[in-house]
Amino acid sequence: MKALVLLCLVSSIFAKHEEYIGWKSYYVAPSTTGQLESLGSMIPSLDLDFLSQASTDREGLVLVKPEHQVNFIKALESEGIQYWLHVDNVKAQLDLDDEDMETHSKSTPPKGEMAYDRYQRLEVIYAYLDRIAEQYPNLVKLETPAHSFEGRPIKYLKISSTNFEDESKSIVFIEAAMHAREWITPPVATFAIHKLVENVTNADMIEKFDWIILPVANPDGYAITHNGTRFWRKTRSTDHEDGERCPGVDGNRNFDFVWNTIGVSSDPCANTYPGRKVFSEVETRVVRDILHENLNRMVMYLSMHSYGSMVLYSWGHDGSLSNYAFAQQTTAVNMITAIQVKKLPEFPNYTAGNSKLVVGYAISGSSQDYAHYIGLPLAFTYELPGLGPGLLGFSLSARYISHVVDETWDGIVVGARRARQLYGPDPFKY
Q: Which of 336, 340, 419, 430 has its CB surrounded by the most CB atoms within 10 Å?
């Protein structure tokens, strides 16, 4: 009987990820701005899927479907772009990733608790939000402004010692997992909650700031990545052309800033499909509404993504710099400097800069650019660390989660202080 149970377990593991049979992944290392731009231009024609962003000083990691692999290699060689194979069998490596997570994970945390030795499913994250709000009612308020396309609640916490009524306090908004497969982003958000509520070591973060933290902006997509389609990144809506066959919209292309103009695909099956109209997705409307409702006191918005070890800012559609570029750059550098103190040698140094100039291709309809467009000077996209040479898998190994969330919190603290110094009620008197 035990042998039968074991056989069934092994069979269930290896039955997963079958849609990725034949896929390969490659490291690509553009050495010039021209090569970086050429690489970006290959994305739509070859349906490339970058898991880790490339720049001129670091390699990127890209998934390539079987039908495009020959032309992909030809295109790289014609442009003189260095490349090397990462994984020859994506499905097999995903199976190994699953085993790695189980190896480095302890038992499932008690209901309402959060652990950082594994990537938690949506129900565990939501139970944690529920418990925090119930246990700390004078500090935390749970909000459920809407439900996702598939009916899951979209939950976020408002954290404030003064019930968001003190107009002298500055607001910071952290959003994670708009791209569903980016599993390292929800732990960063829940750890920030932990440091603001359960283990307060930076008292000024509560005394001078109110916080809005949305750990899973795209719950439908996040759920499906844990249930088999590991690289799903979009929402799961079907109310667009060919939606039943190709569900979902790229939430980070669905915001109302130069929407559907560049860095997007009109193909509903593509990862960068921007939707049939601006804010077609309930998930992006939730983020929009949070921004507008709190804009008068909000000093910083952080959209958490992975991977790349980057802090990026506007404008992403054309690479131009806004009137706040100096403040953006200095704040980003301050955050990075704090993070680098604890950086592990396995990870590259963080880079700060304009999103198009750093990653080499333009995008439109991003949340970062929209927040900046409506008047928030400091809106950043974090590309968290992971997936570099020597790190073979596709999920950042669970053994790194606790370190990444800790170093990122240090960066958030420094960024919040700098943002209040620049744009709080008494600039430069923080």
A: 419
